[in-house]
Amino acid sequence: MNTIDFNQVYSEYANRLLYIAFRYTQDRRWAEDIVQEAFIKAFKKIDTIEDTKKLGAWLSTITARTSIDFLRSEKRNRWLLVDSTKMEPTMSHNINGGNTEEDVAIRLFQKDVDRSMKNLSKEFQEVLVLKVKYGLKENEIARLLGLKSATVKTRLYRARKQLKQVFVQ
């Protein structure tokens, strides 16, 4: 295999990877950080590339996975925002600029869900927000709230059931 000039690789693929990271994060600064992280990961494993024709796809995959990992960690780091009035702007659905009618329908549905969640008990709201809006797993929620995992699962089940009844009627 030929040696790979990493400076050339960077100049050739940096914009493409920035675009990929931005599509995930919708934030240019985060996207730039993710691209840097992706290039560091790639640099460490560059010797594992067997076919240099697939370098772009390989880098794109690394960037996409790094973006997803970053978003997951950001969701987990923001669990302290429990007040739904503070969470709503930060955790709202990412609107991709595609279909305006669909975007409006999604926002209206989110408002209906948020309003309905206010009718749930505080215990149900707590676990549901951590699960749905922040993507935490049951055992993480249990550890965070000092509960048993079975208690969290029961509360999630009951909270979803109550919400479903509101929307079925």
From TrEMBL:
GO annotation, biological process: DNA-templated transcription initiation; response to stress
Gene3D superfamilies for this protein: 1.10.1740.10, Winged helix-like DNA-binding domain superfamily/Winged helix DNA-binding domain
Domain RNA polymerase sigma-70 region: 10-76
Example GO molecular function: DNA binding
RNA polymerase sigma factor 70 region 4 type domain segment(s): 113-163
Record keywords: DNA-binding, Sigma factor, Transcription, Transcription regulation
Domain of life: Bacteria
Keyword Cytoplasm recorded: no
Residues spanning the signal sequence: none
UniProt similarity note: Belongs to the sigma-70 factor family. ECF subfamily.
Name of the protein in question: RNA polymerase sigma factor
